[in-house]
Design goal:
This protein has 140 residues and is an alpha+beta fold. It is built from six helices and three strands. The C terminus is likely disordered.
Length: 140
Amino acid sequence: MKLKGLELIKKIIDTESILKSELDISIHEIYVCAILHEHKQMKMGELTAILDLPLSTATGIVDKLVNRNLIAREKDPEDKRVILLKISDGGEILFDQATKLIMKNYADAFKQDPGMNLKTDLVEKRKRFISKNEINLEWD
């Protein structure tokens, strides 16, 4: 079974609902965790550029994650004026849980397709998603 456009959109919406109900995290918040998981640390301006959101919106997302101790703001040891964002141990745990939920949600959608190497395909798509910081909606 290949996912068609509408089915894929429904699956994405379902995934957002699952993340919110089971982990109390939004898709934007988990995206920030994914970016910081991959990059280890970055400046707010760099994160804002990757998210392609206004600074005020990105700051609101970061504030929520800081308040939940999922990420931390730390002074750059080389330039005390610069604040770096880093994912915390709690953020790493939540990111791992979210990744498992997302993979399970998509695995259910694809398990009827015996020709799909689900584990390899999803792991590769996740790597591309994180490394390029973009969503690829084309499922081969």
